[in-house]
Amino acid sequence: MNLYLETYGCQMNVNDSQKMESLFAAEGYALVADFRRADLIVINTCSVREKPEQKLFSALGRYLPLKRRNSRLVVAVGGCVAQQWGAELQQKCPGLDIVFGTHAIDALPAMVREVRSSGRPQLDTAFRSSIPSLDIIPRYAAGTLTAFVTIMQGCNNFCSYCIVPYVRGREYSRSSAAILAEIRQLAENGIREVVLLGQNVNSYGLQNEGEFSFPQLLARVNEIRGIERIRFTTSHPKDMSPELIAAFADLDHLCPQIHLPLQSGSDRVLARMGRGYSLADYLDKVERLRRVNPEIAFSSDMIIGFPGESDEDFQQTLEAIRRVRYDTVYSFKYSPRPGTRAATFPDQVEEAVKKERLRIFQALQDEISSENLRKLEGSVQDILVSGPAKRGGDQWVGRTGANRIVNFSSPENLTGRFVAVRITRALRHSLRGELA
Ligand code: SAH
Ligand code: SF4
Ligand code: F3S
Description:
- The protein is of the alpha/beta class.
- Helices cover 34% and strands 22% of the residues.
- It is built from twelve helices and 19 strands.
- Helix 8 (242-250) runs parallel beside helix 10 and helix 11 (311-324) packs parallel to helix 12.
- The structure holds S-adenosyl-L-homocysteine (SAH), iron/sulfur cluster and FE3-S4 cluster.
């Protein structure tokens, strides 16, 4: 039996898809790249911005007609759009076999078996008080170096623009025992780098009595032999504690890299977003992190054209990125999400204005990103080699601790090794170097 999986959205969604792949591997399914060969098609959706329903309907327009030729084909929709629309989705899309929400991944194989035996459509979008799917362990191909480990899911922050708390539910943390056991197993299987995932990892463990805090968990992961690099995403600036800042000094495997989404450089806009910090608070945390380790590379998410954003507010956002000098910023036009507070704000920004501001913003950030890369020319960087470069030959690619991509040539296959590389040239989004 063949499984075709299509995934949109954040790294957590990608990790959820990896879990589905491992669940179905246990049921005898092999993953295929061609949907026409599939017996089961799963679309894992994201609803964080811009017309996710349209994307889903066009995917279903591709897949549902295949059922006429292949009566064994089962089509399932999961993820955040499925969570949001549930039964409505089923009514709108006749022939869709399964709709499963963000807490129901572990239930999917049984739902597929049920469809195969009864032919009846299945729906499960209940929020559970504990989420068993968090403990499903993805399987990685031999030779994989980096693994993603979801440590918590959900969010209690309800930023005024954001749909995530509605589609992922409230904050829920996995037990540290399960997380650490998984990472030990990964290390034994050759994984060298782990990325800890959650909508708000700083809140890890706070709901479970007696559980480690996030910095305490990081310290335990830091002790696991074989794990050379630890990263995490996403942490909320308001919860960036002194303990977490200290971890960047104390933990030798914690990479000098942090994704710390600012969202806007205007205090007025930040307040209306409900972010719980001012630009000054944020810059203070960046400053403290840089004092602990000046090498830390920052990245951010930014929303352009939030309701009420004036030209003055927008200028403050530009000023903020000039000050922080991010390596990368994921910037998007504000997109009203059904059911969120900001979608009802009366002062929505015109589409053309959002578009123009986004263009200006991205041009400036591109310049800053390039400048950051150029500053590394001549330096020697420790690279974890992930494999052959796209252009092949004797070219290899890896990443620095700060997560910058480096291409270099070597007659020898160095995949999986740490090597020192002297940076010779900065390109648009990556670096070139030679073995030092
Ligand atoms: N928990 C993370 C963000 C998860 S959502 C945090 O708080 O930083 C990922 C990103 O999507 C957000 O950082 C935000 O920049 C963007 N986003 C969320 N809702 C959006 C909306 N309605 N319009 C545009 N971008 C949005
Ligand atoms: Fe969304 Fe805010 Fe929660 Fe991040 S912290 S997931 S932006 S509500
Ligand atoms: Fe999208 Fe859901 Fe992630 S809305 S960003 S897939 S949590």
